[in-house]
Specification:
It is built from 13 helices and 21 strands. The chain is of the alpha/beta class and 459 residues long. The chain folds into two domains: 287 residues, Zn peptidases (Aminopeptidase, 3-Layer(aba) Sandwich); 123 residues, Alpha-Beta Plaits, CATH 3.30.70. β4 and β5 form a beta hairpin. The chain is globular. The model has no long low-confidence stretch (mean pLDDT 97). It binds ligand BES and manganese (II) ion (2 copies).
Length: 459
Amino acid sequence: MQAAQDYIQANKQRFLDELFDLLRIPSVSADPAYSDDVAKCAERVAEHLRLAGADAVEVCKTDGHPIVYGEKIIDPSKPTVLVYGHYDVQPADPFELWHTPPFEPVIRKTEIHPDGAIFARGSCDDKGQMFMHVKAFEAMHKTNSLPCNVKFMIEGEEECGSSNLGPFVRNNRERLKSDVILISDTSIIANDTPSIDCGLRGLSYVEVEVTGPNRDLHSGVYGGAIANPITILAKMIASLHDENNHITIPGFYDKVQELSAAERADLNKAPFDIEAFKKDLEVDDVWGEKGYTVNERTGIRPTMECNGIWGGYIGEGAKTVLPSKAFAKLSMRLVPHQVSDEITALFKKHFESIAPKGVRVEVRPHHGGEPVVTPTDSKAYQAASDAMEKTFGKKPIPTRGGGSIPIVALFEAELKVKTVLMGFGLDSDALHSPNEHYGLFNYYRGIETIPYFHHYFAL
Ligand code: BES
Ligand code: MN
Ligand code: MN
């Protein structure tokens, strides 16, 4: 064990340089303009797995972006850890809000990361966190201290719905056979407060289109006599929350399980500094469903958000137009027992029903995903907890993550294997946002912690 840790210390700079190389590849999965870069990134990840010592490394073609596989089987009688991560990233725009270009990684110090953070798209989500596993594996392999079998499945479509991972998993059940799935793609509470997410929310994502007149109209000649699709859409979206910020879709909460008072008390024991939270975001108050704390609102309660809205004239100057159409993208985060397709259907029915006369409404479903709760009474959770306690000097707090990794529920259903979400990012690392970053502390702490996980899990 110490040999692997010494190896990590001796190779720190190279581990960083190699991550920088990966971050320079703009592997934006949602935008077809970047598909060559996505393919290049998959090849680079495969190359790194080979160099680290993995066998049977393969860049597996899919109907979309490839999945990188690799493994090291030291002894079939030993337990097997399947590491999942993603090498694709979110689009980087709006580019003008980045202080340095998104695909030219640099290190800068911040208040939260006084030792420096790597600024680049994907630094935290998820190239930096995924690559920690490759480097930890290298350290264990090169020092002959790998205590169990390891498999890697690194996908390139997590940020755009993972639509080809389901079929891949179904067609590769034998190859993916494992005792636990280990993922670093979530956050800890703070660098001095380790935590492990024990649940993730699901997702239901829709696009809506409101059509009024058959063409754009002069807003003086027709305005006042014809429904303006933007006004109507804005009202319809606003009506999705009531005065207590409950969601108004009939049946939306039917399957939501209320937590017991004890469970809620436990959840609220996790340290949370509301003043620091507001200060970081420069808002003078928080918002949300009446009767719930911030941690509950992001962890155990479902939500409805408008992710984008457009229509009419948004160019320079003024154009007096009554537009024919207005659009929005809306997403709902789901909690245990809500089912993505069911919620999408409820939304569609409701949204169509509240459309007034004078407009037509179309609802188009996008990708979705199911919520999950991961066990805390398993050997794998205990191994992650012990590993973090070893490197942080504090026992990690079990938490609920607000984000979604839809594939976790699918792994459980298809492979009958449970997941441990041992993430090392911070919520304030600006994931999906301009100036995404990942602390050097977090990167190295992750690499140091992972060998302990394998060690404890294999015991
Ligand atoms: N790594 C995130 C999910 C995440 C972040 C979970 C922080 C918990 C804490 C993942 O890459 C992600 O962004 N997922 C998407 C879902 C996907 C279907 C686009 C999300 O949560 O919006
Ligand atoms: Mn991610
Ligand atoms: Mn993401």
